[in-house]
Amino acid sequence: MASLFSRGKDHVEVPRLRSRQNRGGEENVNRVALGELTPDLASYLGRAAYLQLAIFETASLALSIAPHTRGKNAMSRVAGSSLEKYEGLITELTRSGHDPAATMEPFRREIDAFHRTVLGADWYETLVSSYVVSGLLDDFFVRLAGGLPDDQANRIAALLTPELGSGYIVDELRAAIDADPKLASRLAVWGRRLVGDTLLIARSALAVPENTAPDEARLEPVFTELIAAHTRRMDVLGLTA
Amino acid sequence: MASLFSRGKDHVEVPRLRSRQNRGGEENVNRVALGELTPDLASYLGRAAYLQLAIFETASLALSIAPHTRGKNAMSRVAGSSLEKYEGLITELTRSGHDPAATMEPFRREIDAFHRTVLGADWYETLVSSYVVSGLLDDFFVRLAGGLPDDQANRIAALLTPELGSGYIVDELRAAIDADPKLASRLAVWGRRLVGDTLLIARSALAVPENTAPDEARLEPVFTELIAAHTRRMDVLGLTA
Asked: Engineered SS bond to A72: which of A66, A147, B108, B236, CB 3.0-4.6 Å?
């Protein structure tokens, strides 16, 4: 099912900062640009882990409000996949000598507020949230891992890449969208709000030296790529991004 | 942490119906009594799996409403443990040729209603629910597995026995209860309601031939044992069952 999303193995190949000189092509430069703004390991992991908890909570909410047993069962796999990613990030935290709860704590308030805005008002909106927010954030954190030490970067990229259960979400949403044009336009609007809020919370993860702003000219292509991947995800649903 | 609960290895040793003649002691007879009311494999698994989803939903709710990051992190392990049990039961269902969603469907309405009554109104009540309901139901379904074929019975008992994360719940609740006698009495009342509702839903899993009632005289000791285990769990919290 992964092939549906045009999200192939390029998600596991983390671009390395050190190899910039050896690689050509604009795309590499774009990706590496994000690696230069990677925060320290603890901040990266604390934020990524707490965001993964929020992604898990959205999947669990979808499971709880699922209007049929099939949906509950399918969303249990999505929730489980997110929980595995979370546990993997926590393992990285403890492996590097950090207390998980204390390291996540500074991000709690901001991410809780974000989570409330992207929960969705019903089954379909929450499904779109689960699919869109996890897609964007996992994508973003795989790219941002480019600035971490090799070992962690590769393990984290492998950890965050799988999209277990999204095949079900796509099938369920496509069927509902095909049957109801009003739902399609409501969910397209919802998807636009999600991408805005999610890219904002993603940006706040960038390590920008005090009293400076990130180099927008270098960042823009990175966010253009993230939005392009998001647009492909919405296309798969039959929605305009 | 399992030792806190006086729930030792007797939970993995599923009493076998066939061995009744070979074993002495009232306790074995009591346990075997439940095995005689074990429903067919599909009904057993469908009900146990859907109840495990409800247990997972309670743990996820606790995670969502946790007042601190430490609590969120700890409840992620409780939720993950419940999800593993669910997935194990679903694996048994597919292995025996049953469609998971269709097999769970007949139990949906009754268990959803049960789930709503045991959710709890706040962090502490939901923690008690997570601990008490999963303890009672896993206990019950391990005993009820006694009437299933050997292979399944042993795998299911091994699957449902671990109580991952309950050590955290106990610590968190004990600290709050020690600090606030009013909370202690409120949670004791809540625990009594939980045990009543949970034993009712457990009873509804028993396969009783049409137009007959279960043999109460034989069932009573089984439920007495379940309640005794529940009482030990409440004792650990410092609450009167």
From this structure: A66
pLDDT in tens, A164-218: 788 999 999 999 999 999 999 999 999 999 999 999 999 999 988 777 777 778 7
Rounded to two decimals, what is the model's pTM?
A: 0.87
Tokens of B20: 């009744």
CB B124 within 8 A of CB B183: yes
Give one DSSP letter per residue of B203-241, joined into a string. Answer: HTTS---TT----HHHHHHHHHHHHHHHHHHHHHHT---
Taking only the tens place, the pLDDT of each residue in B120-136 is: 999 999 999 999 999 99
Q: Is there a contact between A53 and B68 if contact means CB atoms under 8 Å apart?
A: no
CB-closest option in A53, A61, A72 to B76: A53
- Cβ partners under 8 Å of residue B113, min gap 6: none
Which has more confidence, A140 or B163?
A: A140
Return d(Cα B170, Cα B128) in angstroms, integer: 9
A83 touches chain B (CB under 8 A): yes
- Main-chain phi, psi angles of B213, to 5 degrees: -110, 150
CB A170 within 8 A of CB A237: yes
Rounded CA separation B83/A45 (Å): 24
Calculated CA dihedral for residues A131, A136, A142, A144, nearest 10 degrees: -160
